[in-house]
Design brief:
By secondary structure, the chain is α/β, with parallel strands linked by helices. It has helices spanning 22-27, 32-42, 56-73, 83-89, 103-110, 123-131, 155-165, 181-185, 199-202, 207-224, and strands at 16-19, 46-49, 77-80, 93-96, 115-120, 136-140, 170-173, 192-197. The protein binds 4-methyl-5-hydroxyethylthiazole phosphate (TZP) and magnesium ion. 4-methyl-5-hydroxyethylthiazole phosphate binds next to α9. It is found in: Plastid, Chloroplast.
């Protein structure tokens, strides 16, 4: 299989990684596209549509609409789990977990120009992601979170261990927000490129304002190391 890749991916895009949750956005009475646009205006550098319940056709329509929002800003849009949805909307890539399609199969289906991310909790999983031709890994949950049930927490120690062991760029996820993003970035790993957040943006009334605050926390740490 194809292990070339990495044609298009800029690891700095992981800096402020916004992961959607349509349930949260529904609660705040706004369409996904508005929430995505607000996140981008506040400084999000990449968007992932993570929709576990959405039916296929609605997911494709939502993804196409979000592509229209992201493209003028040159912000990559990734799809969680669903390679078919990513192909249907010509998304910039796919993010898979450990029980989803393997990254080398995703690569074979998407080709070298797309971004592939893999969720990893262990060094062995990170090693496999590298072998499979992934572009980055998402590591967590770093802190406890209500967003993902049954999620085992790896802590800052687990995050650091994976960063040290992997050649891939890393984005940290799980329970991260404006109150603790500095602690994550301050572990001082040079391949730790950013934080991925769901509720810190999308379970808030003012998505743009929260994104701006989080971005300034990240920039402060980034400038001081
Ligand atoms: N993977 C590990 S933790 C998590 C995912 C998708 C949920 C993160 O959500 P939040 O609201 O940023 O804690
Ligand atoms: Mg998954």
């Amino acid at each position: 299989y194809n292990v070339e890749p990495r044609l298009k991916f800029n690891p700095d895009d992981l800096f402020l990684y916004a992961v959607t949750d349509s349930g949260m956005n529904r609660k705040w009475g706004r369409p996904m596209t508005d929430a995505v646009e607000a996140a981008i205006k506040g400084g999000a550098t990449i968007i992932q549509l993570r929709e576990k319940e959405m039916k296929t056709q609605e997911f494709i329509q939502t993804a196409k609409a979000c592509m229209e929002v992201c493209q003028p800003h040159k912000i990559p849009l990734l799809i969680n789990d669903r390679v078919d949805v990513a192909l249907a909307c010509n998304a910039d890539g796919v993010h898979v977990g450990q029980s989803d399609m393997q990254a080398h199969t995703v690569r074979a289906l998407l080709g070298p120009g797309k971004i592939i991310g893999v969720s990893c909790k262990t060094v062995a999983q990170a090693e496999k992601a590298w072998m499979d031709g992934a572009d980055y890994i998402g590591c967590g949950g770093v802190f406890p979170t209500n967003t993902k049930k049954d999620n085992i927490t790896i802590g800052l120690e687990g995050l650091k261990e994976i960063c040290l062991a992997s050649k891939l760029p890393v984005v940290a996820i799980g329970g991260i927000g404006i109150g603790n993003a500095n602690l994550v970035m301050e572990i001082g790993m040079k391949n730790l490129k950013g934080v991925a957040v769901v509720s810190a943006l999308f379970d808030k009334e003012n998505v743009e304002g929260e994104a701006r605050k989080l971005r300034s926390v990240l920039e402060r740490v980034f400038c001081s190391v």
